[in-house]
Amino acid sequence: MIAIRIARAVALLALGCALAACSTFRGAPKPLISPKQLESSASFNVAGDIETLTKTTTDKAARDGAMRRLLAVCDMRYSQFRHDIVANRKHARAGANALTLMTDVAAGLTDSVGVKDNYIALSALIQGGQTLYDKDYLFDQTLDALVVQMDANRKAKLVDILVSMDASVEQYPGQVALADVLDYYHAGTINAAILGVQKSASAQDAQNTQALRQLKAIDDTQRGAIRTGTTALFGFVDGLDQAKADKVLVFLKGKSVAASKGATLDETKKALKQALTQLRRDQYPDDVQPLLDELKTATQ
User: Fold this and answer.
1) Smallest Cα–Cα separation from 137: which of 96, 88, 83, 186?
2) d(CA 154, CA 261)
């Protein structure tokens, strides 16, 4: 009887510790404002802003204001979603470990064979359920990579939207703007992240396959010229500051070559090197100097 009471006390203690440490396991403080609080503010009216975009034909200020508010709602919802899918995994694992410890200790303290067996069975169930949760629902170790891909998808789409907002309503109608906002929302989903990874892998595979074919078809002299040209391009990129790197991004967009601005200057330079290598191979296969001249002019 005493052993059972001790087991109950340990169980309550373990459960209390797990609940008390909830914030720690989640790894972040409460957000400044929740999506529900934001959308309940008098300044935000999602339905009204959508209606504005579908009806606006000439008022650029109304279109841009509606878009900015909808983008803010998308950002808040994504921020909460991003935090939840990462933090909940850690929280669920910690909670499962606490419950497993509770049942294991309780099983060791009881003298009843039947009760001991029940505790052991419960411990196995908790551990098995946690494994199922990690493997089947959170993609195990791939989740972090998918979050990075979602972040990249959203940044790329946001750049397109901000560039488009410079245009008039006639050039960038409200209906098109609404479609872009919805695309921005979908860019922050798991499905979009998976598609982005697949698309990136396919593009990289095609690019590398083409590069290998070209290398097989050239002689040593041409290979030397390619290496020299690549060194010159990379040296040019290494010498860029943030302002000039931004100008190169604009230059590449004019050449229909995709390159995304990174969170840091080093990440941006890495993206520029990849994009310029592709541009050089596709449009300047014989001589890199004209490309370098254009880049210097574009960054003046």
Assistant:
1) 88
2) 12
The tokens describing 6, both together, are: 């001790």
Query: Is 220 buried (19+), middle (13-18) or exposed (0-12) by CB count in 10 A?
Result: exposed
pLDDT at 24 over 60: no
Please state, in angstroms and rounded to a whole number, the distance separating the CA atoms of residues 60 and 42. Answer: 22
**pLDDT at residue 244 is higher than 60:** yes
User: Residue 185: its pLDDT value, please?
Assistant: 93
Contact predicate 21/101, CB 8 Å: no
- 3-state SS, one letter per residue, for 203-224: HHHHHHHHHHHHHHCCCHHHHH
The DSSP line for 48-60 is: HHHHHHHH-SS-H
pTM assigned to the model: 0.49
Take residue 208 and report the two structure tokens written for it: 């590398």
Own/partner pairs, 253-258, CB within 8 angstroms, 24+ separation? 255/279, 255/283
Q: Which of 126, 124, 105, 106 is nearest to 115 (CA)?
A: 106
Higher pLDDT, 183 or 133: 183
- Cα-based torsion angle of the residue sequence 268, 270, 274, 280 in order, rounded to the nearest 10 degrees: 80
Cβ–Cβ < 8 Å for 135, 28: no
For residue 64 the two structure tokens come to 């841009």
Asked if residue 88 lies in contact with residue 62, where contact means CB atoms within 8 angstroms, the answer is no
> How do residues 52-91 score in pLDDT, each as one tens digit?
999 888 899 999 999 999 999 999 889 888 877 766 555 5
User: Alpha-carbon distance 81 to 28, whole Å?
Assistant: 13
Residue 248 to residue 43: CA distance in whole angstroms: 38
Q: Which residues contact 73 (CB under 8 A, 6 or more apart)?
A: 35, 38, 39, 44, 46
State the helix-helix crossing angle for 60-109 and 46-55, rounded to 10 degrees. Answer: 150
Residue pair 84/28 in contact by the 8 Å Cβ criterion: no
